[in-house]
Amino acid sequence: MKTKRIANLALFAALFAIAGCSDNNNVPSLTDKSSSAASLPAFAPSSATARVFGNIKFEGTPPVMAQVKAGGSRFCVQNAVGLTEQDVLVTKDGKLRNVIVYVKSGFEGRSYSTPNEPVVLDQQKCVYVPHVLTIMTHQKLKVLNSDPTFHNVHSRAAVNTPFNFAQTDKGAENMVSFDHAEMPIHIGCDLHRWMSVWLGVFDHPFHSTSGDTGSYELNLPPGKYEIAAWHEKYGEKVLPVEIGDKAQSQLDFTFGQ
Questions:
Q1: What's the CA gap between 111 and 14, in Å, rounded?
Q2: pLDDT for 13-53, tens place per residue?
Q3: What is the pTM (predicted TM-score) of this model?
Q4: Does a structural domain hold residue 77?
Q5: Cβ-contact 87, 195 below 8 angstroms
Q6: Which helix (H) or strand (E) holds 38?
Q7: How many structural domains are present in the chain?
Q8: Domain that includes residue 230, residue range
Q9: Which among 48, 76, 77, 85 is most buried, taking Cβ atoms within 10 Å?
Q10: What is the CATH number of the domain that holds 82?
């Protein structure tokens, strides 16, 4: 086992050297926000008096998710027992989990402050938690490893700078951020190839996910919007909505076979 671990570490060392990875303080370089964006009127959170909410309904019989054949490290083999693929997960009341919901149009004409609090992505029993998440440009993504085994965190960004770094043991932490809006970005572990997370990066704060419940909520200023719902297997659907001051509007999406 010791020989196998040394071989794995050597493989990762070569992989990271090729990918140009850095240490646990790795942060892809940031670019300044454009002067045109800075000249726009600033968004006031108190103006988001309207509420759009809804359910992501699943139509038909949910597919049976295949069992994961865990490998790559002894810890994952022992702790990923019973784990299934995560690409289509449906709640008991027929709602689709892990859908990214965001404002596709209607947010323009304002500048938006970057949140100070980071978004957290963890690795628990050889699974990324959560499976989908959203973040603003320039906001920090804190990547944690809660497993007593090594993972690597490899983004396949097309617009932003890709990254690929090692987290060799429990307690490892990296902070990364993204310069540009991009939807979606896939992140995975090259050693444990079932590990997968989808990330949406936006230059506004009007985004969420259906999480584990299959429901979402967005607080918006009054106006006309296009709301998009994206799923890793079923793609994207877009619906229009117009909402007034202090009004509430239910907007449901339906996906399925």
A1: 42
A2: 444 443 444 333 444 433 344 445 558 899 999 999 999 99
A3: 0.85
A4: yes
A5: no
A6: helix 35-38
A7: 1
A8: 22-256
A9: 76
A10: 2.60.40.420
